[in-house]
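job 3f2a | input accepted
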Amino acid sequence: MATLFTGKVLMANRERDEVETERELGRTLENKVLLLYFGSGQCPRCQQFSPLLKDFFLRLTDEFYVERASQLVLVYVSRDETEEQQSAFLRSMPKRWLAIPFGDAFKRELELRFAVSEVPAVVVLKPNGEVIAGNAVEEIQRMGPACFRNWQEAAELVDRNFLLAEDFDDCTRRSITDPIRRLKYKLDKKTEAKNRERKEEGEEFP
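job 3f2a | predicted structure (206 res):
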């Protein structure tokens, strides 16, 4: 999958850090389903769909909902008119999203390559770059997170949910950027805080 982004730059959401595609992004995309979200914060249809996509993504990757994040990566390909509009939209979306920098001509290349003529559009790709779904907007609206299982099977992903804890932590240490590592730390702290609250309330949990 990294070959799709060879020589290109991706941005970590809400950070100025650039992702070095050949090294770091290659590890990030390995054995994962990639979503290319073509959208705009000003498009009325996108304004209706984006909250659904946000919830969809969080329910598959956020430790508040799942013990192990699903093998899923999302790259935002915007049609926003200004960099400020793109930044404002991304601030309302999950921090784990990646994005094509504003004004990068690569966005047009992706639109042509995947025949995207209108937004919102979600192109679903296998780790090798093959298309699973040309536009999964309707599927996501209809099925929610359940449709990821279909994509996982189509992509023939190796299920990593059975990794030993130390292996998972090691993978985390090799995550693509410090902001994402900091995000995991914050989520861990959030989970610990919730567990403490439940203890104080006398609830039992594993």
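job 3f2a | The radius of gyration is 17 Å.
job 3f2a | closed
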